[in-house]
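B., you asked whether I could sanity-check this one before it goes into the benchmark set. Here's the sequence:
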Amino acid sequence: MRIVGVIPARWASTRFKGKVLAKIQDRPMIQHVWERAKESRLLDEVLIACDDERVLQAAQAFGAKAVLTSPDHPSGTDRVAEAVKNCPAKIVINIQGDEPLIRHQVIDDLAEALIEDEACLMATVIKAIETQEELENPNVVKVVIDREKNAIYFSRLPIPYDREKAGTGTIRYYKHLGIYAYRKDFLMALTQMPKSLLERAEQLEQLRALEAGVRIKTILTDMETIGVDTPEDLARVEGLLQ
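And here's what the prediction gave me:
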């Protein structure tokens, strides 16, 4: 079964333009992501999907396989879909280009979820929320899961609502880590679906799949990562690596 990891690398980031080429320890951030993805034991190939010639050239300079995609894609998922359109992959892993601390074990656990469950079309990764700050931060996406660890809903608000104020020690809260696994055929179909009502409201593209009745399997990890959205996030990552 051919499994391909794709790293969407977008130069035109709204909050931090050119962040994928921002230097961390004298290497562009996207190189850190690629190097960690290359450590995976299950990926047959790692591909960087670029929106800009500058990112393409940088990726090729450090030895990555990279393709230039349309700069007009509304999401990383659409960019990934274009990158694998003619690729003979069965499973596609969407690895965020702004998470230089991603662990290869998380990638492999996600791939295994689809290998072991042939009925599963889509999977993602979650982690327990440990601080009130994370719980209340709308940039930290929360997820409610069922007993089989399938996602019930994703939101920027703290969910479930703790009416009795039992506290986080009683109610378990989980955050969504933005890495996905798809069966390729489903990925191509997903990008052809119109944006759903819930997706538009929350600005969370995974809700398009849920609203269409698709089961999203979640994998629980205890491995932390940091998404780089600002120069301050970049400094945090560099400090951790040092």
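One thing to flag: The mean pLDDT is 92. Otherwise nothing jumped out at me.
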